[in-house]
Amino acid sequence: MRHEVTIPQKLYKIFVYVACISLAILSILPFYIMFVNATRGTYEIQSNAISLIPSKYLGSNYAVFDGKSFSPVIGFVNSMIISIGATALTAYFSSLTAYALVAYNWKLRQPFFAFILAVMMVPAQLTSIGFYQFMYRIKWTNSFLPLILPAIAAPTVVFFMRQYLLGTLSLDIVNSGRIDGAGEFHIFNRIVIPIMKPAIATQAIFAFVASWNNYFMPSILLTNREKYTMPIMISQLKGDIYKTEYGSVYLGLALTVLPLFVVYFSLSKYIIAGVALGGVKE
User: Which is deepest, 18, 69, 71, 229, by most CB within 10 Å?
Assistant: First the structure.
């Protein structure tokens, strides 16, 4: 017999669709308003807080932004260098550490993992003074290295990667590679990393967003205007003594958000593929 959909089921589907569409609009609306405000003048923003129609002040807002003592192009490039470098180190070395915690049975494995969990509980601000003093003594202030190299040690990412490998990695595959004569790094790069693509993509998004939006440590370490990142530049736009140009502030925020969209949509396909693969029954 043909199964007929009853009226309550139809109403339920309509309600679900309406709720999902409404939530999607509510999620997109703040970003759209931000991009619209990037094209509006300061007087328009102050007199009419919300508008869905773009204005004509995009060029003048960029002129205000570019007329400061720093260049938004240089800030954009600096943020990209730091974020890409930190994300690459975080994703690769955290995956390598998690693989060592899962694939090898060594004596201090559990104490080492407990140490990683303990490090997760320590706030970054607690070590900032000592970290700055250390960077000052080795003359690494006004350098991107202190903002990139520490990304190798990311305890939260290691914890996530370990939990992912415990559920997906079969040690029989690793042992098969060893029997075939493959080296340990060859096994990790050619066998383990493809298995970890969904987890790596997820953590790469979080790592890139955290590094791109990082304001605390760059503001402490970077005093040269040629080394400024986008968050530092935007904070100086908001801190103008005489007048705050809200249009240029929104333009800076819009420029800051654009790379995050690109990274998310570029890596989201790996997350979706991993979820679909996990839903297939053997």
Answer: 229
Place of tokens 């303990």: 118
The two three-digit tokens of residue 217, written as one number: 């440590």
Render 134-162 in DSSP notation, one character per residue. HHHHTT-TT-SHHHHGGGG--HHHHHHHH
Closest listed residue to residue 157, CA positions, set 237, 101, 216, 104: 101
Domain count, the chain: 2
The answer to whether residues 196 and 92 touch, using CB atoms and an 8 Å cutoff, is no
3-state secondary structure of 208: helix
The string of pLDDT tens digits covering residues 179-231 is: 888 888 999 999 999 888 888 988 898 899 999 999 989 999 998 888 999 88
- Spatial neighbors of 149 by CB under 8 A, at least 6 apart, are 89
Q: Which of 250, 237, 198 is nearest to 55 (CA)?
A: 250
Domain containing residue 27: 7-60
Alpha carbons within 13 A on the beta-carbon side of 214: 27
Same domain, 94 and 200: yes
Q: What is the CATH number of the domain that holds 120?
A: 1.10.3720.10
> Which pLDDT belongs to residue 241?
55
Instruction: Assess whether 120 and 179 both reside in one domain.
Output: yes
- Residue 250 neighbours by CB distance under 10 Å: 23
